[in-house]
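hey can u run this one w/ 2-acetamido-2-deoxy-beta-D-glucopyranose bound, need the structure tokens asap thx
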Amino acid sequence: MKRDREVLRSPFLAAVVAAALLPIWVLAAAKQQNHHLQRGIGDKKLTFGTDGQFKILQVADMHYGNGKTTPCKDVLPSQFATCSDLNTTAFVRRMIEAEKPNLIVFTGDNIYGFDVTNAAKSLNEAFAPAIASNIPWAAVLGNHDQQSDLSREGVMKHIVGLKNTLAQVNPLGQDAIDGFGNYNLEVAGVEGFSFENKSVLNLYFLDSGDYSTVPSIGRYGWIKPSQQYWFERTSAKLQKAYMSKPLPQKAPAPGIAYFHIPLPEFASFDSSNFTGVKQEGISSASVNSGFFTTMVAAGDVKAVFIGHDHLNDFCGELSGINLCYAGGFGYHAYGKAGWDRRARVVVANLEKTVKGGWGAVKSIKTWKRLDDEHLTAIDGQVLWSKSSVGMRRKKPVGGN
Ligand SMILES: *[C@@H]1O[C@H](CO)[C@@H](O)[C@H](O)[C@H]1NC(C)=O
Ligand SMILES: *[C@@H]1O[C@H](CO)[C@@H](O)[C@H](O)[C@H]1NC(C)=O
Ligand SMILES: *[C@@H]1O[C@H](CO)[C@@H](O)[C@H](O)[C@H]1NC(C)=O
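ok here u go:
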């Protein structure tokens, strides 16, 4: 009897203690978040360069294994003997040297868990060229990152502890969110000019999951309502700030989203309306969770960049949003022998003001580079420009 009472009483006591401590915990969490913000906005604040440019290198699907003992997949027979994960590392290094980006974004399947013996070690090695470059970097998870000795939460926690990363496990201030690695980054205008304290380009990072855990639904994961709710609130908050004083703007700052698994809408194109190639099916979730519609309704996202399908590298526009693959990057990832591994670059340019200063974002462009001798650049295209938005906003002729 007594034992029963004690058992009953202790959870009750625990709840009372927890309730009393809750404000302290919340404060501590807020303090921690502040500290993180300070780190992000202090030494690691993202800003446009003095040339009015912000360039992002996207690395999709490194599929890093154990290093030099891990062989390459789908290379020419003549290349097989001398090819390993070290070729993936060399490609990351070459891309960083060639493009000198302001930010490097890894869009998942950073490691290929099934073949990894020590996830922490492989993650360290996979991100090593980014860390060594001293350029800030971000990462999200794919569907293979957790298939070794760390869970998805474990992988993301390891990543956020690495040097120079701006990645976060999840946003603080929202009680529950699905997945690990949902966060946003703000990019301010050029230091010393009028937009230096405003985010003129917004980057959203989401965990698109791994595999469905719903028995009646097969295949891959999807972006859940909790994540879409976080995105909506974040987008609304950023738009409000951008369109308020000082320097209130008429339209939201452009946004870009990065995650791993394609949305079902990636299947809306064919070669008549995309740039790049489609050499395999679109491996999205078998259900549509509505994130594309959520982004269209929010109104700020102009382009989405993903990986997952290594043989697709196209960009197509649907309802004002560019849906872009990066194309396969890693050598231990399936690919196509003789079809070069590749990476995607995105650059946003600011408009010059009449007084010789820097204004808001004028255009967003993209291209890819192949891992050949000269890192050949291909498929350059303008994804968005401010003037085209202005034109679309004109009153239609004969409209009411
Ligand atoms: C991989 O790297 C080795 C060593 O630098 C090089 O000889 C080989 O050509 C590379 N293989 C591919 C497919 O790039
Ligand atoms: C940006 O903020 C800093 C620090 O508060 C301030 O000194 C500076 O004048 C601000 N710049 C603009 C353009 O408002
Ligand atoms: C692309 O073109 C095809 C016809 O070739 C059409 O069915 C499809 O709707 C188009 N997609 C978009 C997004 O315009």
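Residues 268-270, 272-273, 316, 318 surround 2-acetamido-2-deoxy-beta-D-glucopyranose (ligand 3) (CB under 6 Å). anyway lmk if its weird
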